[in-house]
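We now fix the convention by which a protein and its fold are recorded. Here is one such record, which you should read through line by line:

>
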Amino acid sequence: MTVAFAGLLVACHPKGSATGAGDAAVAAGSRTDGGEGGAKASPEAAAPIADDALPAFTSEELVRRARHLLEAIQKDDGELAGDIVFPRDAYIAVKDVADPGKHWDQKVLAAFRKDVHVLHKRMKGIDRARFTGFELGQPASEAMPKKHDLLRMLWRAKRSRLAFTIDGKPSHFDVAEMTSWKGAWYVTRLR
């Protein structure tokens, strides 16, 4: 697989972009200190971020979590990228299904782990991959509330790109869907 653009996308939204994507990761209990759920709040985390805030199209925090995703695929261990998966508590708050917690366990987390495994097996030489960038799918669009989907509006981005090199050759894979929550982007469908 070749990639025409292996750098990091830097973009602005005409309305301005939300800051504090790292704050959302802390608020969601994401891996910011090297472990799951034990994140410490930063001073910036004090300001609440709206659930439906449009996140920045790139941030150091998103790049860090994208690196975790590549590492998870390299090591065939989805838990290493738990901080990039749409948070369970957020899913429960926004998903219009009978048991959103169970649905998240079966449809989001289990699918993510399976997709990490499939990508690990399909990508020859992935264990030698070097991260080169992450590009959020453009344009992001509003995902409006609808029965059996969302209870409230969130932002979605399709076909985001994680770029890397293997033995100096550029390569990438597309992340099928990312969804916003409290000013940060999360994977809702990996493949």
Notes: Residues 51-189 form one domain. The chain has a mean pLDDT of 81.
